[in-house]
Amino acid sequence: MPMSWLEAVWMGIIQGITEFLPVSSLGHLVIFQNVFHLDPEGSMLFPVMLHVGTMIVIFISFYRDIRKIFLEILGMGRDLTTNIKIFFFNKKRDEAKRYKKIVHNNYRKFAILLFITTVFTALVGYAARNLALFSKTTLTIPAVCFFIMGILLLVSDLGENGQKIPKDVGYGSAVVLGIMQGIAVLPGLSSIGMMLSVCLLSGFQRKFAVKYAFLASIPSVLGAVIVEAVNVQDAGRVNSMFGIYIIGTIAACITGFFLIRRALNFLRKKKYRIFAYYCFAMGILAIAAHFAMK
C-alpha cells in the first residue's frame, strides 16, 4: 500500500539510528516495509534517498578529511601534468630531469585506495542490483544476511588491534573492500560492518578502519542515487510521493546528526560482539516475521 508521511518519518528514524552501526540499516528498512506491507514504488530509490540523508551527516562529520583528500587529488593532477611536461622536455633535450613523485603522503594514498574501492563497489553493486530488488520482497534473504553479518562481526573481534595506515595498505585490500561493500547492497549485510570487519582482519588501525568505512560510503551512495534515478519505472508515482521521500530523508539526516558522534566513539574503541548478537536476534526476528505473515 502507499506509504504515508508518518511511515516515511519512522523509516528515516530507523535509517538514522542504524546506518552508523554495523547492523544493516537496509535490512531494518526491508523488515519494516514487509511487516507493514509498504512498497514506496517498487525500486530501491526511497532506501537510497534515506542513505543520502545519513550521507550528509557523514560528509559534515568528516569534512576536514574530505577537504584534504580533495586538495591532494588536485595536487596529484598538477604533479601528473608536470611529469608529462618533464617527459617531453627530457625527450626533446635528451636530459634526465627528475619526475615528481605522485603518491608521497598518506592522504594521496588514501584517495587512490578509496577510488579503487569505489570502482569495485560500483561493479559488484550493479551486478547484484536485481537480487537486491528481489530481497525487498522477502524476509528470508535479510534473515540469512543478518546471520552472516553477525558471524563476520564475531570473527573480526578475534583479531588483535592492527597498526596499518594508508601507506601500509596494498591496493589489493582496496579491491577486496570494494567487493565487500558492493555485496552489502543485500539487506542484512551492513556496508559499515562489512568494511570494518575486513579492515580489522587485515590489520588496519581501528581509527583508520572507521574512517575508511565511512568515507567509502559517500561515493557509493551518490552512485546508487544516479542508478536508481535512471532506472525508475513509474516516474509519475515517484513524483507524487517525492515530497514524502524528502520527509523521510530529512528525518534520517536529523536522527543521524544527533547519533553519529556516539557511534564513531564506540566503533573506534569497543569490540563489536554486541552488534553480532544483535544481528543474530534480527535474523531470528526476520524468520519469525516471515512465517507469521504466511
Strand content: under 5%
Structural class label? mainly alpha
Give the number of helices.
12
H and E string: HHHHHHHHHHHH
| Average pLDDT rating | 92
Please state the overall shape, judged from the principal axes of the Cα atoms.
Answer: globular
N-end to C-end Cα span: 18 Å
Helix content: over 70%
Indicate the low-confidence ranges by residue numbers. none
Rg is: 21 Å
Number of strands: 0
Largest sheet composition: none
Task: State the main characteristics.
12 helices; 294 residues; single chain; mainly alpha
Describe the protein's architecture and organization.
This protein has 294 residues and is an all-alpha fold. It has twelve helices and no strands. It has helices at 5-18, 25-35, 45-61, 63-93, 106-127, 129-135, 140-156, 171-183, 191-201, 206-230, 235-269, 273-292. The longest helix is centred in the last third of the chain and has 35 residues, at 235-269.
